[in-house]
Hints:
It comes from Flavobacterium calami. The chain contains 4 helices and no strands. The protein is an all-alpha fold. The relative contact order is 0.10.
Amino acid sequence: xxETSVFEKFELHLDESAKDFLKETAKWAxxxxxxxxxxxxxxxxxxxxxGAIFSTLGSTVPGMGAMGTxxxxxxxxxxxxxxxxxxxxxxxLNKFAVNAKRAFRENDSEALTxxxxxxxxxxxxxxxxxxxxxxxxxxxxxxxVLGALFAR
Length: 152
């Protein structure tokens, strides 16, 4: 005789207030993702102009030395990298919102499952990125302290 656990029998049901909360969350997530896409567009535009501006600045300012016009290229690439990093959490948030809205509009539980998968990916990306930045800050702190000690 095969036994089933309590967890295998468990089925989650959303009441109306939970559905309303989720619908409202999807609307705000969609709004924030649109703002994120606009922000990415502005960062890309800034990357294009920053490259030109800093290249001109690098060639006219005598203190720039060997950097010269390559400083503008470095700044442009830096802004493009920032835009690329920023794209993924915004994309995941947008896909969550679109799928969640579709799930409630069409009463589609598969779309709701997909929306939660994108929400998980969004938070996973944010968590890993935050952890990476914290580790980077820790390394910078350690090297700054070591540099100060060895400078004495």
